[in-house]
Specification:
DNA-bd_HTH_TetR-type_CS, HTH-type_TetR-like_transc_reg, single chain
Length: 185
Amino acid sequence: MTTAPRPRDPAPRPRDSAATRAALLAAARELFAERGYDGTTVRGVADRAGVNQALLFRYFGNKEALFAEAVSEQALAPLVEGPPETLLERMLTTMFDDTRGSAMFFAVLSSEGRAGEAVRTELGAAYRSAFAALAATDDPVDADLRATLLLAWLLGLGQARPEIAGGEKALVAHVLRGARALLSG
């Protein structure tokens, strides 16, 4: 008895791990910005990225690691996107311009638990160091104090942003003047 030849399976879909990882990060950024850490589920991220949630665990290990990578990369971008002398403008514009990722900053601020604390610690250290380098002083202790005060002020402004009236440009201009005064002494 002869059997009919089996139809060939279609060629397997090529796998692109970099594209899958990027899709997961993009979906995570959107959801963390919209819903915060606690309101975002790994299933929701995987669904939005169009992949199985097992891939999320494969690439990131857990939700905390996904959160850390998704928000850290975007929040640290102003540190490397230009020269140090324009850092304050870049950071403030990113932080307060709704079209440039301000929701991500506020997701970090409002995140509770170990994931939020770890990311805030990492970002705080990076920005504190960058701000200290801008301080007009040769005293490293004073430079660190100025940077710490500036960072605390900016974080407070970030949390109060919904109650602050005025346009983004005016807000950035006022805060920029105050930040420069603090750093210049």
